[in-house]
Amino acid sequence: MRSRQAQVGQAANELAAGKRPRMSGIARKEAIAGYIAISPWLLGFLIFQLAPILAAFYISSTEWRILSAPEFIGVRNFDKLLFKDDLFWQSIKVTVIYVIFRVPVSAVLSLALALLMNQQLAGRRLFRTIYYLPAVIPLVAVSMMWIWIFNPEYGVLNSFIRLFGVEGPQWIHSSRWALPALIIMSLWQVGTGMVIFLAGLQGIPAHLYEAATIDGANTWQRFLKVTLPMLSPVVLFALVMNVIGSFQIFTQAYIMTAGGPGNATLFLVLYIYRNAFEWFHMGYASALAWVLFVVVLVISLAMLRSSEHWVHYEGRIGGA
Amino acid sequence: MTDQSWSRRHFLQGSALVAGGALMAACAPVAGDPGAAAADEGESMSEEPVELVAQYWGTRPEFIEDREILAQRMTEKFPNVTASQNSVPGGQYGEKVLTAIAAGTPPDTMQLNHRWEPFFRGQEALLNVIPFADADGEFSFDVFYPRIIELGTTEGQLVTVPRGWNPFVIYYNRALFREAGLDDLPTSWENDTWNWDSFLETAQALTADSDGDGRTDVYGMFFPYWYPFLRLGGGDVLSDDQQSSGLGSPQALAALQWLADLRLTHGVSPTPAEIEGLGSAQDLFTAGRVAMFTAGAWGIGALTRVEGLDWDVGPLPRAAGQPPVGYTQYYGHGIPKGTQSADWSWEYLKIISDEESNITVAQTIGDVPAMRHIAESEHFAGLPKPPTRQVFIDSAPHMQVWPTIAPITEIMSRAITPELNLAFLGEKSVEDAVAAAGPQVDEILAAFWGN
Questions:
Q1: Domain residue limits at B138
Q2: Sign of the CA dihedral running B270, B272, B277, B282
Q3: What's the average pLDDT block by block, 10 residues per block, for chain B (451 residues)?
Q4: For labelling alongside B245, which of A131, B218, B251, B315 has CA 20 to 30 A away?
Q5: Last residue of a domain, one of B400, B415, B441
Q6: Whether A248 contacts A95, CB under 8 Å
Q7: B15 found inside a domain
Q8: B19:A152 CB<8 A
Q9: Chain B contact for A280, CB < 8 A?
Q10: Distance of CA B184 to the CA centre of its chain
Q11: CB contacts < 8 Å between A and B, how many?
């Protein structure tokens, strides 16, 4: 039997020659054991995730009202949503505006909070808990609370604004202010991002800061030249998660505004839900879901692709 | 953190979205057997053990108890039958029942109302109960209010055996009426002095800023439902031939404008923000913040439990030149196609809609029973509160109901409500709202009729 070293050497040579390395008996056993180990997840994924996704793709080409058999109608659902359905475009508009405002603002706030909580402050653990707390409260309960905060007559927000002698807006009872209200409300949960950034901050080696300080960098320069580059993988993670999560906004609109007033908060997922479970157009709802899937996929891939230019991975040279 | 883990994470996130709708695909789309046994096929009822499930929405304790008793009575009558209830929260009713039917395991009976009867009827998922009644020596539709049976019958088919109905009336606070120097409301639906003008005058007399801080403390009226007023005004959401929107008719426009003016011009009705801050119509009414509100008979139960509240009911006010309209929502039970044995379902249905069950509707649930002689007996009409219960019963000859066309929920929640809400908020004129809703209504109708 050849030595382990020789096997590795040969495998490396085959790799270099662009050939697939031949598996040894042991490696094959290990691979089989590996697949067995991941099989619970793999099966769960195939049966409960991939199969429904593919089924939804088929359903999206049908008119299906559940009780009668799905009727194949080709691309008519997509044709309708792209060219004939004003509500679809309204839901896209509302959702995109929400994402555009919510994602950057919450990223900046999360990072600012994380920087603050990374200082040696008295009671810092307590504050961290307080800031993170909203993230663990169910969104339904949070929504009920914000209904009260936003109430134009009796809510705490307008009572505060009234202190300055100004009457606040009608918030969720106005088609102009309902969407801004939900964006403001979403900032309530910046604690989630804060925790992620905090973990990233604490992973930055102190010697980098020491070196920068010795080289004469001030606080701002240390932040720009050390903190941000070192944190960039975490920023990428947080941004992508945030974009995906923001595109999926549903609960707040479902509970607080029912998509209104006048479809001002008709987010795409709410529109999918209504088509599926209020009006029972399963085919059309599946088509809408696929559009959302593709939109999120494309945006996420674009972000990942762009990350080559701004994300710095430690241990890689030249940022590539 | 590699690209690979990213795309997987993303993939999972995205897939979770579509999984909900797609899970349905796992269930074979088996519709109820269209040729399901009807009574006249003479299927024999064996003594074999049978398990029956009645499907309901709503999970309040008194509902659950009522349904438990109905199941027990079924088992007492037929010892070989194990009967039970399946009660789900109202919001999940449609998807639960649809999924069960699609999976080939429909309930044996199912609750129906103005929301669900058109939908399931449109899906051809319900059996016509008339043949069962005809073949049954114990049963007659004559005991029910004839208008309910008449309104529920489409093309010779009736899918719901009624159990209760909810006539809409004006609930009013007598103490606030006294303070404003007003007499009690009339009790006759035919009385044309109780009309939209006198209704507005009454509401204006009741609206008050008691502490003089410039904000209204008592509102004359609150209308959680606009549809009854649309009908009172002689309009409807659909044209007579049900091919297009009816909201553009002069009567419909006038009725909607009148409603919008109640809040926006006359200030006799609270804004949505005030309602949200103060609670439901009943909360506002109980707290003395609203002097009149419209609701079905379900208001009786809750208001009767409030001690020291002096209240009564009056008919809906008539619009000029229009006949009285007794807007009503009725409910009952039907038999889904594809049940294990339609004959057993029918037997269960009979118990759910029988005299004893109607008495429960009157006394425990608080709605008006569908059986006329029970409604007019001491079980409903004879109860002490409110003093003029007869108003509910007298609405029967003028009974009108929610549109019965299958896509009515989509027409309302997709096309009409978002636009009318803007009109009632004052963000849009009634004409503009109706003009925006019209094409959307027409589009849904065109798809439905296959144009």
A1: 50-166+328-400
A2: positive
A3: 38 40 37 38 67 94 94 95 93 90 93 94 93 93 95 93 96 96 95 94 94 90 93 96 95 96 94 83 91 93 89 96 96 94 95 95 91 94 90 96 93 96 95 96 93 59
A4: B315
A5: B400
A6: no
A7: no
A8: no
A9: yes
A10: 28
A11: 163
Same domain, B98 and B125: yes
Q: Tell me which of B377, B400, B423 is where a domain ends.
A: B400
Structure tokens, B45 = 């009822």
**If you measure CA to CA, which chain A residue comes closest to B412?**
A279
pLDDT per position as a tens digit, B434-449? 999 999 999 999 999 9
- B279, B149 contact by CB (below 8 A): no
A57 to chain B: nearest residue by CA?
A: B22
**Do B354 and B248 fall within a single domain?**
no
A1 to chain B, closest Cα gap in Å: 35
State the angle between helix axes of B61-77 and B342-352 in degrees (0 to 180), rounded to the nearest 10: 120
Residue B348 located in a structural domain: yes
Over the stretch A220-268, which tens digit does the pLDDT of each residue have? 999 999 999 999 999 999 999 999 999 999 999 999 999 989 999 999 9
Task: Return the CATH number at B257.
Answer: 3.40.190.10
A220 touches B: beta carbon within 8 Å: no
Same domain, B297 and B354: no
**Whether residue B209 sits in one domain with residue B154:** no
The CA dihedral of B176, B179, B182, B187, to the nearest 10 degrees, is: 30
Which residues make Cβ contacts (< 8 Å) with residue A102, sequence separation at least 6? A183, A186, A187, A242, A246
The single-letter code of the amino acid at A81 is L
**Burial state string for A19-36 with b = 16 or more CB within 10 A and e = fewer than 16:** eeeeeeeeeeeeeeeeee
DSSP state of B83: E
Q: What pLDDT is attached to residue B358?
A: 96
CATH number of A78-310: 1.10.3720.10
Q: For residue B19, tell me if it sits in a domain.
A: no
Residue A191: which residues within 8 A CB-CB, separation 6 or more?
A: A110, A113, A131, A132, A133, A134, A135
Q: Measured between CB atoms, does B7 come within 8 Å of chain A?
A: yes
Alpha carbons A278 and A66: distance in angstroms, whole number: 13
Q: Is A156 on the interface with B (CB under 8 A)?
A: no
Residue B250 contacts A, CB cutoff 8 Å? no
When mean pLDDT is compared across A16-20, A122-126, B40-44, B425-429, the lowest value belongs to: B40-44
Alpha carbon distance B92, B69 (integer Å): 24
Note whether residue B109 is domain-resident: yes
Burial A129-163 (b: 16+ CB within 10 A, else e): eebbebbeeebeebbeebbebbbbbebebbeeeee
My answer on whether B307 and B339 are in the same domain is no
**Which tokens belong to B240?**
């007579």
Interface contact flag, A87 B32, Cβ < 8 Å? no
Domain ranges of chain A: 1-59, 78-310
The answer to whether A183 faces chain B, any CB pair under 8 Å, is: no
CB contact under 8 A, A56 and B272: no
- Say if residue B386 is in the same domain as residue B243: no
For residue A173, give the nearest of B23, B32, B273 by CB distance.
B273
Q: Is the domain of B161 the same as that of B233?
A: no
Helix (H, G, I), strand (E, B) or coil at B172: strand
Same structural domain, B213 and B235: yes
SS3 state at B291: strand
Residue A216, sorted as left (phi over 0), alpha (psi -120 to 50) or beta, turns out to be: left
Number of alpha carbons in the 13 Å side-chain half-sphere of residue A35: 5
Q: From CA B403, how far away is CA B237, in angstroms rounded?
A: 8
**CA quadruple A169, A170, A172, A176: dihedral sign:** negative
ipTM for this prediction: 0.83
* Chain A interface includes B323 (CB < 8 A): no
Q: Which residues contact B214 (CB under 8 A, 6 or more apart)?
A: none
CB-nearest partner of A66 from B29, B272, B410: B29
